[in-house]
Specification:
The complex is a heterodimer of chains A (559) and B (449). Chain A is of the alpha+beta class and 559 residues long. Chain A contains 14 helices and 22 strands. Chain A has three domains: 112 residues, Ubiquitin-like (UB roll) (Roll); 98 residues, 2-Layer Sandwich (Alpha-Beta Plaits), CATH 3.30.70.20; 242 residues, 3-Layer(aba) Sandwich (Rossmann fold). Chain B has 449 residues and is α/β, with parallel strands linked by helices. Chain B is built from 18 helices and 13 strands. Classes of the chains: A alpha+beta (559), B alpha/beta (449). The structure holds flavin mononucleotide (FMN), iron/sulfur cluster (SF4) (3 copies) and FE2/S2 (inorganic) cluster (FES).
């Protein structure tokens, strides 16, 4: 919906291939645009330029002009402007494009430079690949294969460094594998704003360490593990657990807050081993909080709701009876997917029930955790489940006290945690859909065990009104049912019409029923999401403050 | 030809009987008069004079001082800083410390003139960490000058104000590299910066335009203004103006420091006539002309150089006039003026092992080729002298050096690879035969850093 401003373009020649790239692009990115890989270690698109690994050396030339007249100097033979090649190789990461710039990424000199750097990086590097967590996703391995010489001339003693340094509660350092690229240091300075890492000692004996008396313990510490090009920084949780090439990758969205961090869920044979960030330059860049990475542990948590053994049809029959008794209230959730919220709203309409959503807030960290801890508050607005920013359930409590509500449907919300008292819960019949046991499931007359975000597919709308989708990474717990299926069955059971509970069908309904989603399907949502128009809700005050790539509307007007 | 007479300008009062490093003595010898005169001139005219004088930096690279000053970003609106590089760490170099110890006001005057010429309001003297006495002397001298109105507020009663702070270095060779120095001055590890974008003239100290000049260079500025650029131009040879201080160490009878007009003395004159030649019963074998990073010259080798008219001349090492350009044409450099002499008692593998140990110890460790290459070179040459030399080691060590030079963040890459490249190139036979030689000559006493 929002068109980015057209950047000013600069024409450059990568290995003779002409391409127009945005002004300010560096040579590594410009080469990427023509499909050429300029190998690198220290360069990271979201960090400052360090220029220390020297892997990205390329040859650089500029069109020649006469000093006095500024006229181009032409090559008689080709009829083209002559190129003045700089005799020394230049770093691609630290070189910004200039009009007419020529770059050689494949010349003998470049090849020789890469071989030299590879040899240097390997002489003191341990032969740990067979036991190294990074193996399979290691830049040093990859580039040794691609650009190394394939034999060693080094017969001296290798340097010895600490193999198992605790940098913090979640990160363990193997110093011998460190290529001293300083990515981790720059990350802690520039993104996490917690300047605790640095090098001590000099030359080849340089060692990464924490500031004395401090630890790498901020909630972004594991990003250093992600960006470490080698197996030096390892996740203490993941360390030695699984070879990465066995893992299946599934795109997901972190449900931690309304930021909607894009993630990849790594699993094997139905078991999740880790979650890492997925690049989205409009949302989370390449980062994610540590706290979002452990959420997969909920999948196999002790308190997962198990099927009771009653046949599913009995559950449905009991629920239907309760709902048909009237005086129903529906508590939907800001954690439910857009599709689930749509079906929740549909059920409520069918029952003429009042709807509620539980607001869930906490302090934002200004980076990637926002004050709204519901990943999909916007979805509840877009689907018409609610029309206000959600708060607590006091109103529902009053209605229960007044005897106006006899049955409550809760989609994954623990009503007592949301503020209803035990007496209030005792006054009503509860139909509960949820994945984990809690006071509400204990008090409920009917419990439908459902799935976690990792076991189902759907979409969330984040604080920017960006529609983002997630896919099921692992099969659901045996006997648990997708919320969409349960909701759709309830709708039909109370006399509504089902259009199907699968994503295609629900989206057909969504697109037809919600103007902002017209023409969309689940499949059409891009991997990095789709920004929706938010004018309808511009009068509401949302709890979020500023975070990476998000300026709250109010702050914009005061600024 | 006998050597010409010494021409002492910078070192005029060094070791002079009765000359002390206090303000009174300096003023008795005409001190701070040039500063007073300079303050009446327009800054841009002083800059023009320095450019015209042809002054080249004495810190190592021999870069034109006037040109360096012309690169300073004067439109940014940010303050401009001047930093005096008094880190003097290049092995074989010992000139700046004498200026600081014995004639500190000369440096302060040169610095203040240069500051005025460049609209600098704050200068720093970054002095080598191992020079505590020098730092004390400078502090005292600056206070004297401040009290007398030559430094600080309203200098010499004008509305120009500029102060000088002394900052003691962090005790590493790399602190002398100008961008490493700037980082260190900012309180960080002296990791040199990448250029582009961090050219000191634009993004230097605290990301402001900054001039970094060597101690000796700034002293020359005083004398250029004193005698006028035209007079100064007459000293030395075209493009190699002024005097140079040669710090001669090693196997000569009279090591020490000597100041000569640039290019007016040859290597032979310096080593034989001035320094008294080799020790008894010895012959000169090699000389490093500009600090340990400069490429070594082997006695007996010749250089064929082009004259301006296109004709050629052939020079022996002894014939090389000691200026910037001829030394460069002979494949080495005048560098910092540290002349290191070796006679035939020296084994070149052992000499290189010593130099390599220094550079491996001093690499800051930021960039891969220098960090890994410098230590690898040390490991090879140390292994060689400890009895495990192989015939191919000379070639190997040189190819390691070839993989460093020209590919690093700072010029340390060249500094650490040029010795190896030139030693192996010129003494390859000694590298090949080292194991054989060792059986006859014991190197057991060799202690490496
Ligand atoms: C590794 C390295 C060490 C250096 N050490 C010194 C030094 O100790 N003193 C110095 O004046 N310049 C040193 N330099 C040169 C400085 O970077 C810089 O060029 C010089 O201070 C500029 O002053 P000048 O133009 O007056 O010569 C060093 C350069 C390198 C690459
Ligand atoms: S960091 Fe890479 S190259 Fe090094 S041991 Fe691990 S997998 Fe192998
Ligand atoms: S630990 Fe990893 S990211 Fe940090 S400097 Fe070493 S190699 Fe780079
Ligand atoms: S060349 Fe050596 S000293 Fe200079 S930045 Fe690189 S590692 Fe440091
Ligand atoms: S990517 Fe490391 S120097 Fe360019």
């Amino acid at each position: 919906m929002i068109q980015p401003a057209q950047p000013e373009l600069v024409t450059v020649f990568i290995d003779g291939q002409e391409i127009a790239v945005p002004k300010g692009t560096n040579v590594i990115e410009a080469a990427r645009m023509v499909g050429t890989d300029v190998p690198h270690y220290c360069y990271h698109p979201k960090l400052s330029i360090a220029g220390n690994c020297r892997m990205c050396l390329i040859e650089l030339g500029m069109p020649m002009t006469d000093r006095a007249t500024r006229e181009p100097i032409m090559d008689e033979a080709t009829g083209k402007q002559k190129i003045n090649w700089i005799p020394r190789p230049q770093i691609g990461c630290g070189t910004t494009v200039a009009p007419g710039m020529h770059v050689k990424t494949q010349s003998p000199m470049v090849k020789e430079c890469r071989e030299g750097v590879m040899e240097f990086l390997l002489i003191n590097h341990p032969l740990d690949c067979p036991i190294c967590d990074q193996a399979g996703e290691c830049k040093l391995q990859e580039q040794a294969t691609g650009y190394g010489r394939g034999y060693s001339r080094f017969i001296e003693q290798k340097n010895v460094k600490p193999k198992r340094t605790r940098l913090g509660p979640r990160v363990t350092l193997d110093d011998e594998r460190c290529v001293l690229c300083s990515r981790c240091i720059r990350f802690t300075q520039e993104v996490a704003k917690d300047d605790v890492l640095g090098f001590v000692d000099r030359g080849s004996y340089s060692t990464l360490t924490c500031y004395p008396g401090k630890e790498l313990e901020n909630n972004y510490s594991l990003n250093t593990v992600d960006i470490c090009p080698v197996g030096a920084l390892t996740s203490t949780d993941f360390r030695f657990k699984m070879r990465v090439w066995f893992l299946k990758q599934t795109n997901s969205i972190c449900p931690e807050s309304s930021v909607g961090v894009n993630t990849v869920v790594w699993s094997r044979e139905g078991v999740i081993y880790r979650i890492t960030p997925r690049r989205n330059d409009e949302v989370n860049d390449t980062w994610m909080p540590d706290s979002g990475r452990v959420l997969y542990k909920e999948v196999q948590a002790e308190n997962r709701l198990q099927p009771t053994g009653d046949p599913a049809s009995d559950l449905l029959a009991t629920a239907t009876r309760l709902l048909q008794g009237g005086a129903v209230a529906v508590v939907g959730s800001g954690r439910s997917s857009l599709e689930e919220q749509f079906l929740t709203a549909k059920l409520a309409r069918q029952l003429h029930a009042a709807t509620f959503v539980v607001g869930r807030t906490g302090a934002g960290d200004g980076i990637l955790i926002s004050a709204d801890r519901n990943p999909n508050t916007r979805g509840a607005l877009v689907t018409g489940l609610i029309s206000e920013v959600p708060g607590d359930l006091a109103a529902l409590g009053r209605e229960i006290d007044a005897g106006k509500v006899k049955t409550v449907v809760s989609v994954g919300e623990d009503l007592s945690a949301a503020g209803l008292t035990a007496e209030q819960l005792a006054k009503v019949a509860i139909v509960y859909l949820g994945s984990h046991a809690n006071a509400t499931s204990a008090a409920a007359q009917v419990v439908f065990p459902t799935l976690t975000v990792f076991e189902k597919s759907g979409s969330f709308i984040n604080q920017q009104f960006r529609l983002q989708k997630f896919a099921s990474a692992v099969p659901g717990l045996t006997g648990a049912t997708d919320d969409r299926v349960v909701l759709d069955q309830l709708v039909t059971a109370v006399g509504g019409e089902s259009a199907g509970s699968d994503l295609v069908s629900v989206w057909r309904e969504l697109a037809a029923g919600i103007p902002g989603l017209a023409d969309l399907t689940y499949a059409k949502i891009p991997d990095t999401g789709l920004l929706l128009a938010d004018d309808t809700w511009s009068q509401l005050t949302f709890p979020e403050g500023e975070s990476l790539h998000h300026q709250p509307a109010a702050a914009e007007t005061t600024a | 030809m006998p050597a010409p007479a010494e021409r002492r300008i910078i070192f005029k009062h060094i070791d002079e009987e009765g000359y002390s490093n206090d303000l009174a003595c300096y003023q008795k010898h005409g001190g701070y008069q040039v500063l007073q005169k300079a303050l009446t001139a327009r800054p841009e005219d002083i800059r023009e004079d320095v450019k015209k004088s042809g002054l080249r930096g004495r810190g190592g690279a021999g870069f034109s001082c006037g040109l360096k000053w012309s690169f300073v970003d004067r439109k940014s609106g940010k303050p401009i800083y001047l930093v005096v590089n008094a880190d003097e760490s290049e092995p074989g170099t010992f000139k700046d410390r004498y200026i600081i110890h014995q004639d500190p006001h000369q440096l302060i005057e040169g610095t203040m003139i240069s500051c005025f010429a460049n609209d600098v309001k704050q200068a720093y003297i970054y002095i080598r960490g191992e020079f505590p006495e020098g730092a004390r002397i400078l502090e005292r001298a600056i206070q004297e000058a401040r009290d007398a109105g030559f430094v600080g507020r309203n200098i010499c009663g004008t509305d120009y104000s500029c102060d000088i702070f002394v900052h003691r270095g962090a005790g590493a060779y790399i602190c002398g590299e100008e961008t490493g120095l700037i980082e260190s001055l900012e309180g960080k590890r002296a990791n040199p910066r990448i250029k582009p974008p961090y050219f000191p003239a634009v993004l230097g100290l605290y990301q402001c335009p900054t001039i970094v000049n060597n101690v000796e260079t700034l002293c020359h500025v005083k004398h250029i203004l004193d005698m006028g650029p035209d007079e100064y131009l007459k000293i030395g040879t075209p493009n190699n103006t002024g005097t140079r201080i040669f710090c001669v160490s090693g196997h000569v009878k009279k090591p020490g420091y000597y100041e000569y007009a640039c290019g007016e003395i040859t290597m032979g004159q310096l080593l034989y006539d001035v320094c008294g030649g080799p020790r008894e019963g010895r012959e000169f074998k090699a000389v490093i002309p500009g600090g340990s990073s400069a490429k070594i010259l082997r006695f007996g080798e010749t250089f064929t150089l082009k004259n301006q008219d296109g004709s050629e001349r052939v020079l022996k090492v002894e014939d090389i006039p000691l200026d910037f350009d001829t030394l460069a044409a002979c494949g080495t450099m005048g560098g910092s003026g540290g002349v290191i002499v070796m006679d035939d008692s020296v084994n070149m593998v052992e000499a290189l092992a010593n130099i390599n140990a220094f550079y491996a110890h001093e690499s800051c460790g930021q960039c891969t080729p220098c960090r890994e290459g410098s230590l690898w070179m040390k490991k090879i040459s140390s292994r060689m002298v400890h009895g495990e030399a192989r015939e191919e080691d000379g070639e190997l060590i040189k190819s390691v050096a070839d993989q460093i030079a020209g590919r690093t963040i700072c010029a340390f890459g060249e500094a650490c690879s040029w010795p190896t490249q030139s030693f192996v190139l010129k003494f390859g036979d000694e590298f090949k035969a080292y194991n054989e030689d060792k059986k006859t000559k014991s190197a057991d006493r060799l202690e490496l850093v």
